[in-house]
Design brief:
This protein has one domain. The N and C termini lie far apart (27 Å). It is globular, with a radius of gyration of 11 Å. It is of the alpha/beta class and 71 residues long. The mean pLDDT is 90. A two-stranded parallel sheet has the order 1-4.
Length: 71
């Protein structure tokens, strides 16, 4: 079973219209949905899901799932 650690979500329905970078890693809700679908096929492990270039690395997930956030 995989575990995904999400950055602070922003976008429709998230309570934040834009990224709030003061709180650490961020991720748009649409990218989060796409990432969850990608995670269903991955080997067990823990993966960080956030925008590229954040304080937290998403390298392991982007390599394993060939996924990159669009926003």
């Amino acid at each position: 079973m995989s575990c995904c650690d999400f950055g602070l979500l922003d976008g429709p329905g998230a309570g934040n219209d834009a990224p709030i970078r003061d709180f650490g890693a961020t991720l748009h809700v649409r990218d989060a949905a796409r990432a969850l679908l990608s995670a269903l096929t991955l080997p067990s492990g823990t993966y960080n899901l956030c925008r590229d270039g954040e304080r937290v690395s998403n390298d392991r997930f982007t390599r394993a799932a060939a996924w990159h956030p669009a926003r």
